[in-house]
Amino acid sequence: SISSGGKRREGLIFVEKNRVCWAAAEGLNQRLRDILRDYGGMEATDEDLREMDAEALKELAKKRGLDTEGIMGRGGFLDLLFSELVEPGLIQPTFITGYPVEVSPLSRRSDTNPELTDRFELFIAGQEIANGFSELNDPVDQRKRFKEQLKNREKGDEEAQILDNDFIKALEYGMPPAAGEGIGIDRLVMLYSGVKSIKEVILFPLLRPKE
């Protein structure tokens, strides 16, 4: 386990009751909607969450005091609820799956539920450590998603993807099934050093903004 002699440190929680026990990660896997229901203090059942549209989820977020400005689409509000209500409490290493298409524009759709994607994220000590997914290789679906992302960007979503015609053209030529995972060394350093801001562990000072 990772601890600091039972003392609380800023950034990550290293108190005894919330030790990060690596052995506890075995087989720990949660769907996004399930964990919202079970650990996010959500009164809505899994069935209710499936039936809620963007406006209903927005009202749910507001009732919990969350800032909904700039959040768009049903998937965006699900992601907001998860990030604010669940993520800080994921102390043990936990894989979250079942991410909505709206917040996963490059991920392949799930065969069992086309509203979700074949994507996972790994969380440890209340922060994201890794992100992985099966690559979307359908050019028609990819173009449609890029156009949806463009609409969101025009409405003020700075994190929305841009329309990449060269990428879509490459998909039209053909792309075999593929998948990938990203784990940043900076994220791991954040975990071990107990800091919240990634700016504190960037190795090259020139990448840090001027104060």
In words, what does this structure look like?
24% of the residues are buried. Helix 1 (32-39) packs across helix 4 (73-85) and helix 5 (139-154) runs antiparallel to helix 6 (165-173). Helix content is 34%, strand content 12%. The two termini are 36 Å apart. It has seven helices and five strands; from the N terminus they run βααααβββααβα. The protein has a five-stranded mixed β-sheet with strand order 1-2-3-4-5. The protein is of the alpha+beta class and 211 residues long.
Distance between the termini: 36 Å
**Main sheet: which strands, in order across?**
1-2-3-4-5
- Content-based structural category: alpha+beta
What is the N-to-C succession of helices and strands?
Answer: EHHHHEEEHHEH
What is the beta-strand fraction? 5-15%
What does the overall shape look like? Answer: globular
Low-confidence runs of at least 5 consecutive residues = 1-27
Number-wise, the strands total 5
Helix content: 25-40%
Summed up, the helix count is 7
The radius of gyration is 19 Å
Summarize the topology.
Blueprint: E1 29-31, H1 32-39, H2 46-51, H3 54-63, H4 73-85, E2 94-97, E3 119-124, E4 127-134, H5 139-154, H6 165-173, E5 179-183, H7 185-193
